[in-house]
């Protein structure tokens, strides 16, 4: 289906009252969890996965995408008013945004973030609409061998390229792969890695692991390091942007969007790299008088650019998710498991078999963007008030949701023991700087990769060279090796004058 | 939650000089080649050994997967062996790094970490254990309310009565939300049954 016809179909479904309602609910929830430090979109969608038993697929995914987009908007509010970024993509926003807030310009910072998010979201969604079908065309030509190589590339990029250390990133990934192996082997029916515990035959639920790492582990870590005292929330003030603010934001919005989207699309995933690049670009390009504001009173360019890059990258993540079935962020991984619980396999065939669903989803992203800019500009005072929920009650509340989200899976105390056990691991992962997202991605993508590998080997009659003799597969594998090696070599070369352990 | 990202931004500010040019000049020890002596390598070593043990357990479990002769080529064992091998390699790598001084001392968050808050941590763990002990017999709302009060206390809340009231309202609202709206099957405990009787609904 070509994009224009697809979007027409999509909008005709997306603009029904029910679907608009789901989008609004998603945007509202998403902004709220984006604002609240401690809850992110991955955790929220994981907790809301039971929705998939009650609601038809379209509604559920509109809700989830609303949460996904909304959290990106909300994250900037926390960064600016509290100077503690709620999402990894908002780290850079906090740099200049918090400084603007300190010098009494929180309002324009919030406004430029919201409008930048809108522009980036729209450009990103346009990207999904027009790039998606092209990627699907290409993806349909890939066999299981190429798919397996692509997943290996994905593993490498999500765990070893970003973050502080490839060793720790890969350890996280392998922990996820190990958790994904637990249970019955789908092809032979043999129990694997269960330690003889019958409760583990069904496998470990990804919701449980996500909740354990993102909610229980983090709360435990915060208690470990807890220091009494309250946080300071900056006042919002007037949100109107002056003429100069507009002039200075316009370029960064578009540059940030164009920079962010490709990063999201590539399995390099992540929003940290593009936001950082956008920040340094804007810093370089800013006129001298604006450069003075960077790092001192807070420059609006440093909020507008990275925030746009953040949202465009987040939108871009949906391209590999929808067209290839490859999740490159924790949130995308959880969404993928939602698709699976409907018996839908995201991937190239999704556009053909579930055309209406996909295009309705994409159309809803446009709708969500409009809703979010409306929700975020006039209602910013409301979101700022959410920030004033005191820490004790906030974390106590998060654990209540964690408990019900896990206990609701099977009413089993064993699950809760597992939840707390993995939570303790999560606490130590935080302490020792192991990233948590690769665990969730490995858990979801691992079994898919194994299946692709065994299919490819069945086709090649057990010949392992199939992965390197097929040219496309070989090219992808070389890319994975390069992604693993090049940053290390480059880093080692850059560090030559001051050698130190990695 | 909030701090991991904040920590990363700090690291980033360090690694990319333009963000905070003054930092490195003030803290030359951050880029020093050897760790300051006050950092023990023991914690990092434990992490490496834990991953090694995990790899060992994975290897043992992979070896005990029954294999039928039909799947001689790529049976159910291949990937488990691969994952076990990977974990053993990574565990070995982490142990090696730990023995050479570890990585904890490079983390800014660890460098200026406040001391372990045993009171907060033990109250929080008590909350989790109370939940485990109570949820089977008394149901979700009762157990989660006790947990809520203990967790809030862990983070410094001193208003016990208000927390209790909040806990009851929140847990019951969450239970009804999940059971009635999301259709999650969670049996009614003592508190839920009381509310259901009071409003005259049937037990779900």
What report would you give on this structure?
Chain A: This is Tripartite tricarboxylate transporter permease. Chain A: The chain crosses the membrane at residues 20-49, 61-82, 109-140, 152-184, 204-224, 324-344, 356-375, 395-420, 469-486. Chain A: InterPro entries: DUF112_TM. Chain A: It comes from Siccirubricoccus deserti. The complex is a heterodimer of chains A (502) and B (204). Chain A is 74% helix and 1% strand. Chain A has helices at 3-14, 17-35, 41-47, 51-54, 57-82, 91-102, 106-139, 144-161, 166-181, 206-224, 243-265, 272-285, 288-291, 301-324, 330-341, 348-353, 355-376, 380-386, 391-410, 413-431, 437-459, 466-469, 471-494; strands at 183-184, 191-192. Chain A has a two-stranded antiparallel ribbon. In chain A, strand 1 and strand 2 form a beta hairpin. In chain A, helix 5 (57-82) packs across helix 6. The longest helix of chain A has 34 residues, at 106-139. The radius of gyration of chain A is 22 Å and the shape is globular. With 204 residues, chain B is mainly alpha-helical. Chain B has 2 domains: 36-113; 118-199, no CATH class. Helix content of chain B is 67%, strand content 0%. In chain B, helix 7 crosses helix 8 (160-181).
Per-chain topology:
The complex is a heterodimer of chains A (502) and B (204).
Chain A: H1 3-14, H2 17-35, H3 41-47, H4 51-54, H5 57-82, H6 91-102, H7 106-139, H8 144-161, H9 166-181, E1 183-184, E2 191-192, H10 206-224, H11 243-265, H12 272-285, H13 288-291, H14 301-324, H15 330-341, H16 348-353, H17 355-376, H18 380-386, H19 391-410, H20 413-431, H21 437-459, H22 466-469, H23 471-494
Antiparallel strand pairs in A: 1-2
Chain B: H1 2-15, H2 21-26, H3 42-63, H4 78-99, H5 108-111, H6 118-138, H7 140-154, H8 160-181, H9 190-199
Helix pairs in contact in B: 3-4, 6-7, 7-8
